[in-house]
Fold this protein.
Amino acid sequence: METRLLQTFATLARTGSFTAAAAELRLAQSTVTVQIKALEKALGTRLFDRLARGAPLTEDGRRLLAAAEEVLEAESRLFAAAAEDGPVSGTVVVGAGETLCSAHLPRVIAALRELHPQVEVQLEPRGTSAALAGLRSGELDLALLLEECVDHADITTEYIAAQPLDLLCAPGHRLADRDRPATWRELAQEDFFLHEQGCSYSDWLAGQLQAVPGAHPRMTRFGSIEAARSCVTAGLGLTVLPHANVADALREGRLTRVTGPTLPDVPVHLAHHSRRHPTRAARAVVGEVVRHFRAA
């Protein structure tokens, strides 16, 4: 049996659509249909139901998908072993939140280009839920997660660093340069501009503000940390962001720290799918990511 049939099987199972699978595999839709029929004939069972709204897996399809993925992973390990003596090369797709994509990963990529010029890193800004989904679907090879705890049986994680947080305002704000720390009750009366929901540190701060009895904090959430940072720089309110993302603005005097409650550091975890063997290129990316964060 040709493993390309199993690749088509896995792709169709993930996309749920012959059209989407054909586009991803760069095949004609008729070719995908022929390959699935050939695989079903070889296995002696129907793998998909053909419905107007898509192609869901049958019960046998769900049962056999894990075995097909194991064969594909074994094939990947075989090719990786065959290339061990050559130069490190290949494409590695990394998912990470915007916080890390903007402040850290460009330097990781620059270092990799010096060490392994044939390794291409593709960054995909993703929150935790989308990153985990990408690891499971095979769209991502690696993910960086800003989470206190990542506990999923099918995801392998490694703690690599912690990101310190800063509570920030513009230099002219009333909470700037105060002699005494601001309390949670005082902070809950302020306007906050935070990263979107699903961002672990922004959600934590929102929870602390909302827990103040009788308080109704005003919070605006943005999909871009640059938008939140710009609003605060303009003197419109406060935010909390990792220090690496605001170091330049602090140094240049565009932002200043607010003295207030102690903020927890945000753990950084490096994650990959437990059943997928990292390629040499992926291992090179892991090595440089770990070196960067532990030297920071």
Observations:
- The CA atoms of residues 179 and 259 lie 9 Å apart.
